[in-house]
Every structure is written in structure tokens, then in C-alpha cells.
Write a structure and sequence with these properties.
Elements (H helix, E strand, L loop, with lengths): L3 H4 L5 H6 L32 H6 L13 E4 L2 E4 L3 H23 L9 H28 L14 H24 L13 E2 L5 E2 L2 H27 L4 E6 L5 E3 H24 L16 H20 L5 H13 L18 H14 L19 H12 L7 H17 L4 H13 L22 H11 L8 H4 L2 H20 L2 H11 L4 H6 L2 H17 L2 H12 L4 H24 L5 H20 L5 H24 L5 H5 L4 H5 L5 H30 L5 H31 L8 H17 L12 H9 L7 H13 L1 H9 L5 H14 L24 H14 L3 H9 L11 H18 L3 H15 L2 H5 L9 H17 L1 H4 L2 H15 L2 H4 L7 H24 L5 H17 L14 H7 L4 H20 L10 H14 L4 H17 L3 H22 L5 H14 L4 H14 L1 H5 L2 H15 L5 H11 L3 H13 L3
Antiparallel strand pairs: 1-2, 3-4, 5-6
Helix pairs in contact: 4-5, 4-6, 4-7, 5-7, 6-7, 7-8, 11-12, 11-13, 12-14, 13-17, 14-17, 14-18, 15-20, 15-22, 17-18, 17-20, 20-21, 20-22, 21-22, 22-24, 23-24, 24-27, 27-28, 27-29, 28-29, 29-30, 29-31, 31-33, 31-34, 33-34, 33-37, 35-36, 36-39, 39-43, 43-44, 43-45, 43-46, 44-46, 46-47, 46-48, ...
């Protein structure tokens, strides 16, 4: 809707007066407009004030001005109604005097200190001059009377003067114009103002002089126009003659002034054009200020108005006549009375000036842009200009041509369509189709010479069809591309206005230029331009007709040409296929031919040898064009028809086995995109079919579309799934791609189960999950990613749950456990590079760890997993980000859950379910236990299995699960290499066992204690494990600081349950006695000192039982008596002292019976042969506990006597002395025994 100023175009005088009088101030040119106001012209301008509208409508120029009896002009009061008749000469003299005064101000030094004064003086002079010229307009409109020349009645002297006024005005105006001269002769003016502290703009005198000249030139035209309108006759001047020698008239003066003014405006524009770059021509305006722009608009309106109501020439005719003088080289041609300066580039300037001036036609009489306004075109001159521009004998430069065509494109926006312009341009481009249309110093930003893809070809064509083009078109597009923009715009507008006839004209012109010879002449660049041209024609007109013609033209190409340019031909054909899809047309014809070519290339790719690199690369280039294009066809098609199935032929079955990894990624990405599109369309169809009250016709159509989708889906199963299934254990397909594609097939099977092959029926979803999610031979990377997709889709999980397959959660948990345990395995099938070995922080690929973390998060949301944690009273436990920690929590939760169960049936079911979770768990960890070891993998394996043995000890205590426990112990702790004592275990394995052994020992002890049936084999296994690893982890030195960190000792310290720890300690004591103290001969076992230190740590770290002392004390005595090594003796003595103290503490005042019997047996075994050592040992004991030794006195005395009898030498003084020394430590009882010995006789 137009604004108020535009809407008031046809208001009457009375109505305008009601709007107020502010606009009735005398208008004048001003460019002092604030940019923030967003106005095109100043409020005081001739346009915005309504002065132009009043002039054209022949209304009072200033209805509210000059209404008093007198008027002050140039400081003198004059009678308003008679001043111009009586004193016209004097007034014009005063006017020229004011002009002179203003010109003298130019000589003053215009600095900031004087600018305010100079601005006020100059502005005052200008306002007086403008006021006088407006007074002339008002006088002509109100007071000038038309005299009847045929009347013979005597006239009043005033009337006689009034009758001469029009001629006098013509003479005075002519004199005034001669006095001020031409605009182009004025010195250059700095338009910029001074701004004072009050933000007031102050202009120098030169600015006021320039704008006063503009006012004079325009107001003279207004006055001359009003004279003609008022008197309706030609007015002759008396003082001047024109250049042809004829008397001067108001008409000739008006035309002369118009010509001079246009010449001046052109000259000003020429000065600006010489400083403009071609690339910025349409961004840089030709007007130095708004006032010049306003003057152009005023001239357009006035001249076009006069041409409609008289025989005057229109604005375009005036401008064309002057521009032709720039283009004509011959000097004898007729030239205007005022010559126009020559330009360095007359063609470029003509395009530039016409384009900018054409944009001024959008302004209405009030200076307001009006897009609906009918714009007068100038096509006839443009056609001539275009012919001359492109027919330069020396050839036109691309940089010039771009600028010309950019201007032409802009004119096509402004004016009605013109098919002739397209025809002229096509004549040029049809001859230069093989040109790249490039500028050496300016690379194209938006388009390369040869486009990269079919979609980019279409994108370029779409850009050419935009209604509004980029202002930077010069730099971003070639001249040929700009020609395509012109072609698109003209054809679209012409067809909209005139139907199909213009299109037939253009089509005939373009088609006629292509024949077999011309097609064979095309280079690669020419072929690219060929496709761009016809794609654009297809986009704006008849797609099928253009595509059919293109196929016919391509058949002209020879095989030799096709070999070198086949990729471009395929891109072009695919671009047409995409256009068909986007316009929802049947692609059958194009798809049939194109898919056959694809099949042939896929076959060629399959049979080509791997060393034929160039041939394979050439084939792949074409194949990738087809794959990318078909993907986009599916993604952009509104509906999928049977013809889409043709694009998915058996070429893919031949292509897939021949692809390398990067190529497979491309093909599988294509597959996923197509499946996603099919599923999306299927879901949409299902929603449509489920609606109520669906019409039978609509229902039939939807069913047909569903059948089409099913056929396409079957093609995918047929040509892709078979290959994916065969690659489950191969390294050829990237795991992520394989998992993603398999997941998409699973979703497709869920949505459209009937399309799946027969070997997956009757439950295709379950069958695929078994193949890619639950099969133990599949890569863990594939399984983790696949199951993440599976668990993420709630609909899919619900489908599987409702299928009656009850074990799907347990199988999913089993696969997750396998994925965690096998995180360090790189290759399941080959021996090379079996493990990922980096530092432990980066030991797993980030992508796999991220996927495993996601799988863990999703798995913990399964109802079965939630139930386990809930029953273990840890349902609020946050899910750890580390999958290993999550697995530990899960295993512990299963163990706790089992322990909390009460009924036998629940426990039995839980054991079965738990074993289902584990599956063939030893197979999962087997790769870590081979010859090639992985420290990270071994630590993970032994650690997790240790936690499993401990936390599931109650489960393993059942007969169902014990077999698995036996296999775990045999496989991990007692493999064949461990039993070979002479062989050293690999360091990574030994480290892993050392860290996790306490878990195994604690778990095994719990199993032994809680086993449903006492199992001798299990006890034997426990003893074997302790026997093997006590020695393996003993330090060489008994005083090593890490002896306390021995895993067997840690197993005792970290155990939280009392019965198992007692059982474990008893087993350890039995193993030590058997392995280290029951040796024969005098040679003790190696590292005896270390085992004594171990025993000491064992008793110091746990509560001592008398039965344990009873088992170990004989061995200690043996070491004290038979081993002479100082370390052994010292440690054995420490052990003896600790045991005696411990037994003393447990038994109180009375010595333990078992301890006394042990000592008595010790005396009997060693008393006769090692009497001195026995006495020495008992002295040590006596110091700690006299009662123990006192109870042994009788045994000692008898041993002494038996020794003396045996030797038959009477009393053994030395032995008796040693025995007496022992007795001396026993108090009175010892003294009494010594007295008895003295009194005894042998």
C-alpha cells in the first residue's frame, strides 16, 4: 500500500491546504539529509514537497505564499500583483547581483572559524534567489492574463506591458542561463559539510553556489513549461536568437536548456565513471549527491509528461540522442549544440548510465519508491547498443562483457521482457561456446570452469533463475553465466505475460545452433556450457522436451570423445535426472539408460586388476557420480516410483566386492541414505492409510505407492545385504559403516518385514540381531555400535520384546560383556597386530570407547539390568562413564542379587540366567592368553575374572556353575606353563595375576565353604594355586619392603568374611608345611628365609590359631636345628618367639596341650643328637614362657639319661652343664631338678 505522499498525487488545492502549510515553503535542492532517516530525498526538495506533482497537474505552485499585497524580494518591498510586469528588468538585475555576491564569497578562506558566518550569508543569498524564481512561477499561475490579440479595443499601458512580459521573461531567462553558464563548468565542490558542537551541518559557499545553480536550471525549466501551459502558444523572444539563427522562443529555449542540462549531467557522470572499476560499476552510483539524483528524476517525470501531451520527445529519446554522440566515431555526424565529453569506454559508460537512470523510474512524483509503478523501457536503444558492444572488430574483453551483461540483467529486472536481446546474445555465445569466459587476474569465487557434481550444476542453474541476483555477480560468475541469468529472466517473464510463444522463439533459435558437427566441436568447457544452457532451459520451460533433445544431441558424440569426457556427460545426465526428481516427474526413460551404463562400468570395475590404478580410478569416478546422484534423486523425490528401482540394479552386487575401504564408505553411506528415505516414506504412507474415512481412490493410490516402496526395498536386500552378511568377520568393511548399515537393515526389516529375504524369515529382525549383535565371532567394534543403534530405538526394542524371544536382554548383556572384555583386541581372525598396544590411557581407540560408553549407558536402562540393581539395593547408583567400572558394578550386583534370594527355585533360575550372561566367556579372553601378550588385555582379563570369581562365589558354589569355575582356574591360574616350574611366566601375565590373585583366593574359599557338596577337587585346586604362587611372588630377600604386598597375604587381609579367611589361612599353612618344611636331607629348600619371613607376616597380620602353630612349629624347629644360615636361624627364632607369645596369649596361664606335645616331640626327635641346639632353643622359649619348658622337664631329663646310656660313658658333664643352664631359667622347679640330677647315679 502506498504511503500518504504517494496517495496524495491527485489531491485538489483545497484538500492540500487542509494537510498543513509546512510543505508549501518554497522548495529547493538539498542533500543535507541524515542517513539515519532512511529518506531518498530531502524534505525541502522539489520532489518531497510536492512541487513536481503541482507542476504536472497545473496547480498553484505555492498556494499559501505571496498572498499579501506586497512581497519582499532582495530586501525591497514590491507590489505582489504587478512587480514582475513593472520591474522585471530590475528584479533580474538584482538577481544577478545576488549571484555575484555569492560568487565573491568563494574567495574567502573557508576555515572552521568562519564557516558559520559564510554559511549564513550564502544560505541567505540562495533563499532570496530561490524565492524570486518561485515568485515568477506564482505570478504566471495567478496574475498573468492571456491577451486577445485580435481585439482592437485600446489597452491600458499596464496591459501593454503585461502583454510583453512572456517575451521579456524568455529573454531574461536566456540571459540568466548565459550568465551562470553550464553546470560542468563549475569548479569541483567538496560536498561534505562542517559539523559544529550542536551537530548542525554548515556548508561552504561553493556548496550553496552549486545547489543554487541546480535550482536555477530546474526552475527555469518549470517557468518555461508553465508559460507554455498558461499561454498555449509559442512565445518569441526579442533579444536573442538560437544557434540556427532563428528567433528564440519558449519552446526552443526549453529544448536547449534540456539538452544543456542533460549534457552537463552526462559530463558529471563521465567524471565519476572514469574512477569506477568494472567489477563495482553497479555498486557505485553516477550521482555525486542526492540533488543530482533528484534532478534526473525531475527531468524524467517532466519530459515524459510533456511527450504524452505534446509532440515533445520523451526522456529516453533525449538521452539516447546524446549517448549516440559518444558511440559515433565519424566527425561529420550531427552533434548537439552543446558537445558531450568523450569517454575512454563509451559502450561501458552507456550501459552504466542507462542502468542507473532506469532505476530512477521507480520513484514517483513525490520521490517515493513505487515497485508497482509502470516503468518506461528503452529496449530499442539497448538492442542497438548490445549489437555494437559485442561486434567490436578486435574482440570484446571478458571483463567488459561481464559489466555490460550485468547491466543488461539489471535492466531486465526493470523493464518488460525482450526476446530480441536474448537472440542477439545467443548469436554471440553460440559461436564462443568453447570459451571459458574467465579473467586471468580474477578467479571465479562461486563457480569453477568444470563443476564438481551434478547437484552443483543444478545449483548454478537455480541461482541463474533467482529473481534477485547477487550484486557481486561480476566477480562470482562468468559472462556466460550472466547470459543464462538474462535468458532465464526473459523467458520466465515472457511466458508469464505472453504464454508459450516466446519460449518457442527462444527454443528455435537455440536448438538450431546444435547439430552433429557442432557437438563434435565442443571441448570439455564447451560441453559444460552446453549442459548449463540446456539445464537452464529445462528449469524455466519444458523439462521433458529439453531432456529428450539433449539425449539426442549426446548421441552425436563419438566414442573417442566420450572416453575423455564421459565423467562430464554422466554429471550432465545425472543433473537432468535430479531435475526430474525435484519436479516429481517419472524418471523411467533416463533411469533405464543410465542404470545400464552403470552396470557396465561396475562390471568393468569388478574385473579390472588391482594394479590397473588409472583404469580403476577412471571407473570409480564415474561410479561415484552415479552413486552420489542416485542418492540425491532418492532424497529429493517426492514419491518413489517403479522407475526408481531401475537405479538399484545388480551393478551394486558387482561393485561392492571390488571396493576398497574408502570406496565402501561411499557406497554404504549411499545405502543408508536410501534406506532412511524408504523408511521415512513408508512411515508417512502408513500414517495416511491409518487415517479415518480414507477415500477408496486415495487408498488404492497409497497401496500402489507402498508396493513400489516394497519393490525398491527388496532390491536393497538383494544387492546389498548379502554382501554385508558375508563381511561380518572381514576387515574390509569399516566396523562403524558395517554396524550402521546392519542397523538400518534391521529397522527396514521391522518396518517392512515382508521385503526381507527368505533365509531371514519368519522373524527377520531377530535373525539380523543374531547375525550382527549376538554372534560371538563378530568384531566387538561392530557389535557395540550395532547394539547401540538397536537399544536406542525404543520401537525396535518393543518389537523384539513382543516377538516372544525372551532371551534378547540376556544375549544383549552377554554381547556387552564380550565387548568390554575384548576392548584391547584389534583383530579376531589373524595373528598379526592382534592387540592395540599404546600407553594405558590411550589403549583403546577413542571412537570405540565412546561407542562402548554409549552402549553401557543404554544397556543399564534395560528392564532386566534395572531389576538386578534394584534387587541388589543399588538402583540409584550412577552409571559410570568407564565401561570397565560399569561391568564391575554389574557383576557385583548379580552376586548380591543372588545372595539376597530366598527360595531354591529363584536361586536355580538366577544361576541359569547368570551363566547365560557369561556365555563362552573363556573364548572371549582366550586371545589374550596366547603367545603374543597384551599387558592391558591381561590386566583387564585377570581383574574382571577375579571380580567374577569373588562376587559370584555363591553362584559358583552350585553344581551348575562349578564346572565354569574349574575351567576359569585351570585356564587363568593353573595353565600348563604355570605348572612347569622351570619356565618363567611372561612378565605381563605375572603382573596381572599378582594384582588379581587375592580376588580368586577369596572367591575360591567362599565356594569351598558354601559348596552344596564338599568337593575335594576344589580344595585341591585352591591348594595348587596357593602352592604355585606363594613361591612365585616371594622376594629374593626376606627383608624386602614389598613382602607385605604378597597377593596371598593380601587375600587374607582384604577378606571381609571370617569363615572363608580361616579356611584360606589353614590351606596356606598346610601348603607351606608340605612345600617348604617336609624336605628330606640336610639341604633346605631355596628362599627358606623368605618363606620364614612370609610366615611371620602371615601370623602378624591375622589371628593365630594353636592348630596352625602345631602344623608349622615342627618346621621352625627343623630350621633352627638343621640350618646354619644366620638369616634362617634369626627368622626361625622370631617365628618361634611370636608363636609362643601368641599361644600364651590365647591359652592364658596354662600352656596349650598341642604346643606342649609339639615341644615334647621336638625333644624326642632331636634331643639325643642335637642336645645343645635343643637346650638353646628351649632357653629362648623359657625366657618367654617358663611354664611351657617346666612341663617339658621330665621329658628333657629322660632324654638326657637315655643319651648317656646310649653312649655308655657315664655322666656327660658337658651335656649336663648345658641342661643345667636351661634349668637355671626355670626358677625353683629348675633348681630342684638340678639337685635331683646331682643326686642321681647312673
Amino acid at each position: 500500500m502506498e504511503n500518504s505522499s504517494a496517495a496524495s498525487t491527485f489531491m485538489t488545492d483545497s484538500l492540500e491546504l487542509e494537510l498543513g502549510t509546512e510543505w508549501c515553503k518554497p522548495p529547493f535542492f538539498s542533500c543535507a539529509v541524515d542517513d539515519k532517516e532512511g529518506k531518498n530525498f530531502s524534505g525541502e526538495s522539489h520532489l518531497c514537497s510536492g512541487a513536481l506533482k503541482r507542476l504536472i497537474l497545473n496547480l498553484d505552485p505555492l498556494p499559501t505564499n505571496f498572498e499579501e499585497d506586497t512581497v519582499e524580494i532582495f530586501g525591497i518591498h514590491w507590489v505582489t500583483e504587478t512587480a514582475l510586469v513593472n520591474s522585471s528588468r530590475e528584479l533580474f538585475h538584482l538577481f544577478r547581483q545576488q549571484l555575484y555576491n555569492l560568487e565573491t564569497l568563494l574567495q574567502a578562506n573557508c576555515d572552521f572559524g568562519k564557516i558559520s558566518t559564510l554559511h549564513c550569508k550564502a544560505d541567505n543569498i540562495r533563499q532570496q534567489c530561490v524565492l524570486f524564481l518561485h515568485y515568477i512561477k506564482v505570478f504566471i499561475f495567478r496574475y498573468l492574463k492571456v491577451q486577445n490579440g485580435e481585439s482592437h479595443v485600446p489597452v491600458h499601458p499596464y496591459e501593454a506591458l503585461e502583454d510583453q512580459l512572456p517575451s521579456a521573461l524568455v529573454d531574461e531567462l536566456r540571459g540568466l542561463l548565459l550568465y551562470i553558464g553550464r553546470l560542468s563548468d563549475l569548479p569541483s565542490v567538496n560536498i561534505g559539510p562542517f559539523v559544529n558542537q550542536n551537530h548542525t551541518k554548515l556548508f561552504p559557499p561553493s556548496w550553496h553556489l552549486l545547489h543554487l545553480h541546480l535550482d536555477i536550471h530546474w526552475l527555469v525549466l518549470e517557468i518555461l513549461h508553465m508559460l507554455g501551459e498558461k499561454l498555449k502558444q509559442v512565445i518569441f523572444g526579442h533579444q536573442f536568437m538560437n544557434l540556427a539563427g532563428d528567433n528564440l522562443t519558449n519552446v526552443s529555449l526549453f529544448e536547449e536548456q534540456c539538452e544543456n542540462l542533460l549534457c552537463d549531467l552526462i559530463s558529471l557522470s563521465l567524471n565519476r565513471y572514469d574512477k569506477v572499476r568494472p567489477s563495482e560499476s553497479l555498486m557505485n552510483h553516477h550521482c555525486p549527491c542526492l540533488c543530482i539524483k533528484e534532478l534526473w528524476v525531475l527531468l524524467i517525470h517532466l519530459l515524459d509528461h510533456r511527450s504524452k501531451w505534446s509532440f515533445s520527445e520523451s526522456f529516453w529519446n533525449w538521452l539516447n540522442k546524446l549517448l549516440k554522440t559518444l558511440l559515433e566515431k565519424s566527425s561529420d555526424q550531427r552533434r548537439p549544440s552543446v558537445p558531450v565529453n568523450q569517454s575512454r569506454d563509451p559502450f561501458g559508460f552507456s550501459w552504466w548510465i542507462i542502468t542507473h537512470v532506469a532505476s530512477f523510474y521507480q520513484f514517483d512524483r513525490h520521490g517515493v519508491p513505487d515497485e508497482m509503478r509502470q516503468i518506461e523501457s528503452n529496449w530499442k536503444f539497448i538492442e542497438e547498443l548490445l549489437k555494437k558492444s559485442i561486434s567490436i572488430q578486435d574482440g570484446i574483453l571478458e571483463e567488459q562483457l561481464r559489466m555490460y551483461l550485468h547491466c543488461c540483467l539489471t535492466l531486465c529486472d526493470f523493464w518488460e521482457p525482450n526476446v530480441t536481446v536474448v537472440t542477439i546474445l545467443w548469436e554471440y555465445y553460440s559461436k564462443n561456446l568453447n570459451s571459458s569466459f574467465s579473467i586471468s587476474w580474477l578467479p571465479l569465487k562461486g563457480l569453477s570452469n568444470i563443476v564438481k557434481s551434478p547437484s552443483s550444476m543444478l545449483e548454478m542453474v537455480k541461482k541463474c533463475c533467482f529473481d534477485k541476483q547477487d550484486h557481486n555477480l561480476y566477480k562470482s560468475s562468468s559472462s556466460f553465466t550472466i547470459f543464462l541469468c538474462i535468458l532465464a529472466k526473459v523467458v520466465k517473464k515472457a511466458m508469464k505475460n505472453n504464454g508459450p510463444h516466446p519460449w518457442k522463439q527462444v527454443k528455435g533459435r537455440i536448438y538450431s545452433k546444435f547439430h552433429q558437427k557442432r557437438m563434435e566441436e565442443l571441448t570439455e568447457v564447451g560441453l559444460q556450457n552446453f549442459f548449463s544452457l540446456f539445464l537452464l532451459l529445462a528449469a524455466v520451460a519444458e523439462v521433458e522436451d529439453v531432456a529428450s533433445h539433449v539425449l539426442d544431441l549426446l548421441s552425436f558424440l563419438k566414442p573417442v570423445f566420450l572416453t575423455s569426457h564421459r565423467a562430464l556427460v554422466w554429471k550432465g545426465q545425472m543433473a537432468f535426472l535430479l531435475m526430474y526428481a525435484q519436479k516429481n516427474l517419472d524418471i523411467g526413460v533416463l533411469a533405464e539408460k543410465f542404470s545400464q551404463a552403470f552396470r557396465e562400468k561396475a562390471k568393468e570395475f569388478l574385473v579390472s586388476k588391482s594394479d590397473e590404478v588409472i583404469q580403476r580410478q577412471t571407473c570409480w569416478t564415474l561410479l561415484s557420480i552415479y552413486i552420489d546422484g542416485v542418492q540425491e534423486v532418492f532424497e529429493t523425490s517426492y514419491c518413489l516410483y517403479p522407475s526408481h528401482e531401475k537405479l538399484l540394479n545388480d551393478g551394486f552386487s558387482m561393485l561392492l566386492p571390488a571396493c576398497q575401504e574408502s570406496q565402501l564408505r561411499t557406497v554404504l553411506n549411499f545405502l543408508q541414505a536410501v534406506m532412511a528415505r524408504i523408511r521415512s516414506m513408508h512411515q508417512h504412507l502408513c500414517q495416511e492409510l491409518q487415517r479415518d474415512n480414507v477415500d477408496l481412490t486415495v487408498q488404492s493410490s497409497l497401496s500402489a505407492k507402498e508396493r513400489h516402496l516394497a519393490a525398491i526395498a527388496s532390491a536393497l536386500w538383494r544387492h546389498f545385504f548379502t554382501f554385508l552378511k558375508s563381511q561380518r568377520m572381514s576387515q574390509a568393511v569399516p566396523p562403524s559403516q558395517l554396524a550402521d548399515a546392519a542397523a538400518d537393515f534391521t529397522l527396514l526389516a521391522m518396518d517392512m518385514p515382508g521385503t526381507a529375504p527368505s533365509d531371514l524369515q519368519p522373524q527377520p529382525v531377530i535373525s539380523i540381531i543374531q547375525l550382527f549383535g549376538w554372534d560371538d565371532i563378530i568384531w566387538p567394534q561392530v557389535v557395540a555400535r550395532y547394539l547401540s543403534h538397536f537399544l536406542q530405538n525404543s520401537t525396535l526394542c518393543e518389537t523384539v520384546s513382543n516377538s516372544g524371544y525372551v532371551s534378547f536382554q540376556a544375549l544383549t548383556i552377554r554381547s556387552w560383556i564380550r565387548c568390554v572384555l575384548q576392548m584391547y583386541i584389534k583383530n579376531l581372525s589373524g595373528p598379526d597386530d592382534l592387540f592395540i598396544e599404546k600407553n594405558l590411557e590411550q589403549v583403546v581407540e577413542k571412537e570405540y570407547m565412546k561407542q562402548l560408553t554409549e552402549l553401557t549407558r543404554l544397556l543399564f536402562k534395560l528392564p532386566e539390568v534395572k531389576s538386578i540393581f534394584s534387587k541388589a539395593h543399588s538402583e540409584y547408583l550412577p552409571i559410570p562413564e568407564d565401561p570397565k567400572k560399569a561391568l564391575i558394578l554389574f557383576l557385583e550386583a548379580v552376586g548380591v542379587t543372588y545372595g539376597n534370594l530366598q527360595t531354591l527355585s529363584d536361586k536355580s533360575a538366577m544361576v541359569t540366567k547368570s551363566l547365560e550372561y557369561l556365555g563362552e566367556i573363556l573364548k572371549y579372553i582366550k586371545p589374550y592368553l596366547g603367545k603374543k601378550t597384551s599387558s592391558a588385555g591381561l590386566q583387564l582379563t585377570y581383574g574382571m575374572m577375579g571380580i567374577l570369581v569373588k562376587s559370584w562365589a555363591q553362584i559358583f558354589a552350585t553344581s551348575k556353575a562349578q564346572k565354569l569355575l574349574f575351567r576359569i582356574i585351570d585356564c587363568l591360574l593353573l595353565p600348563h606353563t604355570v605348572l612347569q616350574q622351570e619356565k618363567e611366566l611372561p612378565a605381563p601375565m605375572l603382573t596381572a595375576i599378582q594384582k588379581s590373585l587375592p580376588l580368586y583366593l577369596q572367591g575360591m574359599c567362599i565356594v569351598c565353604c558354601q559348596s552344596q557338596n564338599p568337593n575335594a577337587y576344589l580344595n585341591q585346586l585352591l591348594g595348587n594355586v596357593i602352592e604355585q604362587y606363594i613361591g612365585r611372588f616371594l622376594p629374593a630377600s626376606p627383608y624386602a619392603s614389598d613382602l607385605g604386598q604378597h597377593p596371598v597375604l593380601l587375600a587374607l587381609r582384604n577378606s571381609a568374611t571370617t569363615p572363608p579367611i580361616l579356611s584360606l589361612k589353614k590351606c596356606i599353612v598346610q601348603v607351606i608345611r608340605k612345600s617348604y618344611f617336609e624336605y628330606k636331607g640336610s639341604s633346605p629348600p631355596p628362599r627358606l628365609a623368605s618363606i620364614l619371613a612370609f610366615i611371620l607376616q602371615l601370623f602378624q597380620g591375622t589371628a593365630t590359631d594353636t592348630s596352625e602353630v602345631e602344623l608349622l612349629l615342627p618346621g621352625i624347629f627343623k630350621c633352627l636345628v638343621l640350618v646354619s644360615e644366620p638369616q634362617v636361624k634369626r627368622l626361625a627364632t622370631e617365628n618361634l618367639q611370636y608363636m609362643v607369645k601368641a599361644c600364651q596369649a590365647r591359652s592364658g596361664a596354662e600352656p596349650a596341650t598341642q604346643l606342649t606335645s609339639v615341644f615334647r616331640q621336638f625333644i624326642q626327635d632331636y634331643g639325643m643328637k642335637y642336645d645343645y641346639q635343643v637346650y638353646s632353643i628351649l632357653e629362648t622359649v623359657a625366657i618367654l614362657d617358663q611354664q611351657v619348658v617346666i612341663h617339658l622337664i621330665s621329658t628333657l631329663t629322660q632324654s638326657l639319661k637315655d643319651s648317656e646310656r646310649k653312649w655308655g660313658l657315664g655322666r656327660n658333664s658337658a651335656q649336663r652343664e648345658a641342661y643345667s643352664k636351661l634349668l637355671s631359667h626355670l626358677g625353683q622347679v629348675g633348681q630342684d631338678e638340678m639337685q635331683k640330677l646331682e643326686n642321681d647315679t647312673i
